[in-house]
Amino acid sequence: MAETSDMQHNTRPKGWYARNEIAITPWLFLIPAMIMFTLYVVWPIGQSFYISMFKWDGLGPISETGEYVGLAHYERLLTRDKAFTVSLWNNAKWLVFYLLAIPGGLFIALFLNQTVGGIRLYKSLFFFPFVISQIVVGLVFTWFYDPTFGLFNGIIGVFGFNPVNVLGDPKLATYGIIAAGLWPQTAYCMILYLTGLNAVDPEQIEAARLDGAKGLKMLWFVILPQLRPAMFIAFVVTIIGALRSFDLISIMTNGGPFGSTRVLSFYMFEKSLSEYGFKMGYGAAIAVILFLIMLLFIGYFLFRMYQDEREAR
Amino acid sequence: MKFTLKATLAALAASTILAGSAFADGHAKLTGDLKIFLDTSNPAPRATMEAMIERFGAKHPDLNIETTVIDREAYKTQIRNFLTANAPDVATWYAANRMTPYVNAGLFEDVSDLWADTAMGEELASTKGAMTIDDKQWGVPYTYYQWGVYYRKDIYEDLGISEPADFDEMLANCQKVLDAGMKCYTIGTKWLWTASGWFDYINMRTHGFDFHMELAAGNVAWTDDRVRETFANWAKLVEMGAFVDDHQNKDWQQSLPLMVNGEAAAILKGNFAVAPLREAGLDDSKLDFHQFPAITPGIALAEDAPTDTFHIPAKAENKDNARAFLLHVASAEEQTIINNGENLGQLPVNSKASIDDDKFLKEGFEMLSSNSPGGVAQFFDRDYPAEMAKAAMEGMQEFMVYPENLDDILERLEDVRADL
After folding, report:
1. Of A189, B1, B162, B237, which has the highest C-beta tally within 10 A?
2. Measured between beta carbons, which residues in chain B are less than 8 angstroms from residue A273?
3. Same domain for B162 and B259?
4. Do residues B267 and B259 lie in contact, with contact meaning Cβ atoms separated by under 8 Å?
5. Are residues B232 and B359 in the same domain?
C-alpha cells in the first residue's frame, strides 16, 4: 500500500493545501472558537478598559458624551474610595471562607459513599441545595437569620445566647451570606467527590488494607491522591464561585447594611447599572480590577492544566 | 402583558385624519400605532392605567395601542435601554432631577408646546416647576401624593397625646410612647430611600426648602454646620430609640405589621401606605394623619409630594399620537378617575380635577395647597442627583444605626459631592 501511494504522489504534483494539511487543519478547527472568543471575551475586555478611562453615563454614544479622564478612576478607586476597599476585603473573605466547601463536600461525600439501602435518595437530598436557585437559597437564609422569627436565633437561644441580627450587623453580614453560599457549594463539591470516589481503584484499597492502613492514614495516603482531579475541579469552581458571588448579596442584603456586604462584582453593578448608577466608566474600572484578580487565578489554573498535560504526555 | 385595541370602526373614522395638528383637537380621530410602556405593575395601578388607556382607545378606535407593563423596580434600570433603542411612544417616569440624565442625553422629547398651547399648561401649573429643565417641559404629571406622619389614633388617645405642634412636642410624645413599651416610629431601611424621607423633613424643617435645594444642587458642603444641625435633630430621635430595631433589614412593607400590631405608634410615609394599612385592619378610627411639625420656628413649612409622570421618548415613532395621549392623561376628567380611592388613591395634579372623598386625600390636599408655603419637594432621590442620593441614603441608614459614625459619613458624602 505504502508503495502505491508514494507512486501516486510522485506522479501528481501536490496542491498547496495538501502540502500544508497537517499544519493548517488544526487552525481550521480552531477558527470558529477563536472568532467567538475574540468577539465575546477578548474584545469586551479591551472595551472595558477603554470605557474605564472615560467619565460616561451610558446614555448616548461614548464618543460624544464621554469625557476622557485617563487613569483617574483607578486613582480614585485605589486611594480614596472606601467602598472599594470594603468590597475588596469582602472578596478576600469570600475567597478564604468559601473554600470551606471543599473539606465540607469531601466529608459528606465520604460519609455518603457506602452501600446502604436508599443511599441514592440521601445523595439526592444532599445535592438538593445545589439544584435550587441561588435566589431561593438567599430567601431561605434571609428568613433563617431573621431577628424576629428566624430559626437561627431560636437555635442559639437554646444555648443561652442573645439574639443576633446577622444580616443587619455590618461585621457579621458578609459571613452570614458566605454561610448561605456554602450550603449549595458544599453540595456541588460533594457531587464532584462522589464521582471521584467511584473511580477510586478498589484493588489499591485492598492492597493498602493488607498493609494495615486504615482510618485517616488510608484517607490521606491512598484515597486523597486518587481524588486529585476532583480536588482540582472543586478548587476551580469554588474560587470562581467566590469571585462571582452576586445573587446572594443582591437578594439577602442588597449590599447593605450601609454597603458592608458589597463585593467587587456587586459594586460594579451598583456604580454602573443599578437604579442610581450612571458611572459606566467607574464601573468599568472596577470590572478591570476584578478581571486582573481573576486573571491571577485563571493563570494559575491554566499553568496547572498545562503542566498536567505535559506530564500525561 | 400586551393588549391591542383593533380598529373596529374604521369606516366611521376614515374621513377625519388630521396628522400634524392632531393633538390640538382632542376629538380628532387618530390612526396608526401607539406604544405605551408602564411601570405601574402593582395590581391596582395597573388596572387603573389599563382602563385609562382603554378609554383613550375608545375615543380613537382606529388607533392601534400596544401596552407593555414592566415591573416597577426593573423599569428603573430598563428605561435607559429602551429609551436608546426600540423606544416606545409614551413611557412613565418621575419628575424633577430623576429626569435629568435622560433630558441631558436628549432622550426625552421636549413637550413645552403642550404646556404653552393648550389649557393643560394652566391646569397643571402647580407642577410645572418640577417638569421643567432648561426652561422647557419634558413630560406631563398624572398623579402625586403627600408625605407625612401616619399614626395610630387609638394608641395616641390611650396615652393621652395629640398631634404634635412642634418638634419638642414630637419628642415628648415619643418619650411617652417609649415609656409605654412601644416604639414611636416604624421604618424599614433595607432599600434605603425610606431613611431619606426623614432627612427630607428634618432638613426642610430645620433650615427650610431653599437650603434643602441648595444642598441638592451641590452648592453646600455636606460637612457644613447646617447639615450637622439637621443630623443633630435627627440624632435626638435616633438616640432616644424612637425607631424600631433592625430596620436595616426590613423593607417598608415589612415595617408596616409593627404598626398594625401595636409595636410602633406611627410611620413617616407617603400616602401609598394607607391602602396596605387599611387592608391590614386599621380603619379610620385607628389610623390618622398629621403634618410633620415645625422644628426651627419661623421656617416656612415645605412638603414632599412626589409626582409620577408620562414622557415621550425622543426616539418615539408616533409623537403626534403620543402628544394626544398626554393630553388625555392630563385632562381633569381622567385625573379625577385615575386618582380616586378605587384606583390609585392619590391626588390629581390637574387643578380642575376633583379629589376623592377620602379622609387622607382631603387632608393631604389641604396641607399641600394651604399649609406648605415653603414649597413642595419631590423626594430625596428625585431631587438629588442619582450618585449623591445613593451615597447619602446609605449614609443615612448607617446614621440611623450608628449615629456616632456621623463625622465619617459626612466626610464620605462630601467626597462624593466634590467628585460630582
Report:
1. A189
2. 77
3. yes
4. yes
5. no
Task: Please indicate, yes or no, if residue B224 is contained in any of the structural domains.
Answer: yes
One domain, residues B124 and B222 = no
Q: Which residues of B touch A174 (CB under 8 A)?
A: none
CATH superfamily of A80-312: MetI-like (1.10.3720.10)
- B372 within some domain: no
Q: At a CB cut-off of 8 Å and minimum separation 6, what does A24 contact?
A: A17
Q: How does residue B14 score in pLDDT terms, banded at 50, 70 and 90?
A: very low
pLDDT at A202: 86
Q: How confident is the model over A69-90, as pLDDT tens digits?
A: 999 999 999 998 889 999 999 9
Residue of A nearest to B395 (CA): A258
Chain A residue with minimum CA distance to B258: A148
Q: Does B395 sit within 8 Å of A258, measured CB to CB? A: yes
Nearest CA in chain A to B74: A275
Nearest CB to B105 within list A65, A257, A270: A65
Test the B interface: residue of A166, A169, A276 with most B CBs within 10 Å: A276
- CATH number for the domain spanning B235: value is 3.40.190.10
What CA–CA distance (Å, rounded) separates B158 from A155? 37
Same domain, B213 and B291: yes
What's the CA gap between B131 and A188, in Å, rounded?
53
Q: Is residue B369 part of a domain?
A: no
Q: Which of A73, A152, A164, A275 to mutate to test the interface with B (most CBs of B within 10 A)?
A: A275
Angle at B384 between CA B383 and CA B388, to 5 degrees: 165
- Which chain B residues have any C-beta within 8 angstroms of a chain A C-beta? 73, 76-77, 80, 83-84, 101-102, 104-107, 190-192, 245-246, 248-249, 381, 386-387, 389-390, 394-395, 397-398, 401, 412, 415, 419
**Residue B3, in any domain of the structure:** no
Q: Which of A149, A152, A258 to mutate to test the interface with B (most CBs of B within 10 A)?
A: A258
- Residues B312 and B295 grouped into a single domain: no
DSSP letters for B87-149: --SEEEEESGGGGHHHHHTT-B---HHHHHHSTHHHHTGGGTGGGEETTEE--EEEEE--EEE
Residue B150 half-sphere exposure toward CB, CA atoms < 13 A = 30
User: Are residues B246 and A277, on separate chains, in Cβ contact within 8 Å?
Assistant: no
On the question of pLDDT at A298 being above 80, the answer is: yes
Test A168 with B419 for CB contact under 8 angstroms.
no
State yes or no: pLDDT of B112 exceeds 50: yes
pLDDT at A103 over 90: yes
Q: Examine the domain organization and report whether B289 and B166 are in the same domain.
A: yes
Between chain A and chain B, the number of residue pairs with CB atoms below 8 A apart is 76
Element (H, E) at B288: strand B287-290
Residues B49 and B156 in one domain: no
Domain regions of chain A by residue span: 80-312
Cβ within 8 Å, pair B390-A60: no
Say whether B246 and A276 touch across the interface (CB within 8 A).
Answer: no
CA-based nearest distance B299→chain A, Å: 31
Residue B76: its chain A contacts at CB < 8 A? 275
- Reading the block at residue B316, the C-alpha cell is 418615539
Strand order in B287-290's β-sheet?
A: B183-185, B264-270, B147-152, B287-290
Residue pair B404/B383 in contact (Cβ under 8 Å)? The answer is no
What's chain B's length in residues? 420
A155-208 pLDDT, tens digit each = 998 998 888 889 989 999 999 999 999 999 999 999 999 999 988 888 988 898
Shared domain check, B265 and B164? yes
Query: Residue B200: which domain range?
Result: 147-304+385-419
B chain contacts of residue A60, beta-carbon cutoff 8 Å: 84, 105-107
Q: Looking at the 3D structure of chain B, how many domains does it have? A: 2
